[in-house]
């Protein structure tokens, strides 16, 4: 350690040094925070927003193609009271609002996109789409 580090700091002497330095500071040395902010804002460049178009007029679908969505099939639905819901047990039958043989609804994130029928493929259930709703029709339903 140097001898300077061994000396106790004299708070009054340090305060006097700062006061003398501030008195020596002239108006040309003063810092104007507003001027600094103005200069920074003039030089600031807004980051470019992600582009969803690869060429004018053609959307760049690669940006959204890997976004996961939930696909579900709805056989039908019904409304029941909480009392009846609590009374359900194994073997209970619930009547749905759909007739047997009617197409199922295919929903993506809760939005109807198609109708289809149940099929069995390799011992697993599947659905064969019988009617796909156009994007224009889906947009109309949102309005």
Descriptive key words:
24% strand, two-stranded antiparallel sheet, elongated, alpha+beta, 143 residues
Strand order of the largest sheet: 3-4-5-6
Helix content: 25-40%
Number of helices: 5
**Mean pLDDT figure:** 78
Q: Say how many strands there are.
A: 6
Question: Can you tell me the overall shape?
Answer: elongated
Instruction: Compute the CA-based radius of gyration.
Output: 36 Å
* Main beta sheet: 4 strands, antiparallel
Write the layout of secondary structure elements.
Elements: H1 3-6, H2 11-24, H3 33-43, E1 53-55, E2 58-59, E3 71-74, H4 82-86, E4 104-108, E5 111-121, E6 124-132, H5 135-142
Antiparallel strand pairs: 1-2, 3-4, 4-5, 5-6
Q: How would you sum up this structure, described in words?
A:
- The chain is an alpha+beta fold and 143 residues long.
- Helices cover 29% and strands 24% of the residues.
- It is built from 5 helices and 6 strands; from the N terminus they run αααβββαβββα.
- The chain has helices at residues 3-6, 11-24, 33-43, 82-86, 135-142; strands at 53-55, 58-59, 71-74, 104-108, 111-121, 124-132.
- The strands form 2 sheets. It has a 4-stranded antiparallel β-sheet, with no helix packed on it.
- Strand 4 (104-108) and strand 5 form a beta hairpin.
- The longest helix has 14 residues, at 11-24.
- The chain is elongated.
Nutshell version of this structure?
The chain is of the alpha+beta class. The chain has helices at 3-6, 11-24, 33-43, 82-86, 135-142; strands at 53-55, 58-59, 71-74, 104-108, 111-121, 124-132.
């Amino acid at each position: 350690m140097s001898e300077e580090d061994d000396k106790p700091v004299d708070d009054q002497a340090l305060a006097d040094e700062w006061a003398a330095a501030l008195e020596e500071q002239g108006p040309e040395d003063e810092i104007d925070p507003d001027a600094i902010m103005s200069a920074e804002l003039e030089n600031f460049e807004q980051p470019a927003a992600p582009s969803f178009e690869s060429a004018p007029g053609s959307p760049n679908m690669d940006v959204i193609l890997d976004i996961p969505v939930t696909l579900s099939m709805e056989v039908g639905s019904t409304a029941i009271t909480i009392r009846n819901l609590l009374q359900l047990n194994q073997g209970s039958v619930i009547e749905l609002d759909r007739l047997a043989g009617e197409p199922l609804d295919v929903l993506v994130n809760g939005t109807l996109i198609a109708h289809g029928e149940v099929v069995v493929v390799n011992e697993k259930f599947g659905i064969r789409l019988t009617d796909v709703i156009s994007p224009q029709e889906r947009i109309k339903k949102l309005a």
